[in-house]
Specification:
Shape: globular
Strand order of the largest sheet: 1-2-4-3
Distance between the termini: 29 Å
Number of helices: 9
Strand content: 5-15%
Number of strands: 4
Helix content: 40-55%
Order of helices and strands: HHHEHHEHHEHEH
Structural class: alpha+beta
């Protein structure tokens, strides 16, 4: 029984609901499948619609297509086969200093009054708060990863978010700038076999709280 079916309130299924219900972390992919460029472009476009604080768009996506580089990244990821067998390998990174890099770009299409208010607020909020800057990059990367995973599922693909890798080795392999952070790997492709059954869901009343703990 799905989560939707467990609800006491009847819900009309939508593609979004379907993608959320069906999305699983798949480990085995068809290495012979090549994703059409039009689908790759769609995933790129949708990922960039993911929200970020102050619209600083601090996610950076490294789409790794070079076979030799993917083999090296697989070695840095505990030899997990999906790194080379999935159609796409995406390193989702965060630009920790995006907030100070021409912040006027982020509000270029906003009314002048909004620009005058928001652009100074960006510096006021982030300057000198290194932990907040890094945390913001991680939050943004996580939201973008979910956008990609749900979009991929809606398009008929499967995916797997990954933190099982040596971040220092990965950073060196992709020539990561010093003011960036590798947040996670994400693979997307055609599954060879379905994911294992869900391991178990906690009861709703344990994870959903009313007002306070």
């Amino acid at each position: 029984m799905t989560i939707l079916e467990q609800s006491s309130t009847p819900l009309t299924a939508t593609p979004v609901f379907d993608a959320i219900e069906a999305r699983r972390s798949v480990k085995h992919y068809d290495p012979a499948f090549t994703m059409p460029q039009t689908d790759i472009d769609t995933l790129k476009r949708l990922a960039m619609l993911s929200p970020t604080s102050f619209n600083i768009q601090n996610w950076r996506f490294v789409l790794v297509q070079n076979p030799e580089l993917r083999q090296k990244l697989r070695a840095a990821a505990w030899d997990q086969s999906q790194v080379t067998e999935a159609s796409l390998l995406i390193l989702i990174c965060g630009d920790i200093k995006a907030w100070q890099k021409q912040p006027e770009r982020y509000w270029a299409n906003a009314p002048q009054a909004a620009q005058a208010q928001l652009i100074p607020m960006i510096q006021q909020f982030y300057e000198g708060r290194e932990t907040v800057q890094r945390d913001e990059a991680m939050r943004s990367a996580g939201i973008a990863a979910q956008t990609l995973m749900l979009s991929a599922k809606a398009m008929g693909y499967d995916s797997c978010p990954m933190i099982g890798f040596d971040p220092k080795a990965v950073a060196e392999l992709i020539q990561l700038p010093a003011d960036h952070e590798v947040c996670m790997m994400l693979v997307i492709g055609k599954a060879l076999k379905p994911a294992n059954p869900r391991g178990g869901q906690l009861p709703v009343n344990e994870v959903w709280l009313q007002d306070t703990f």
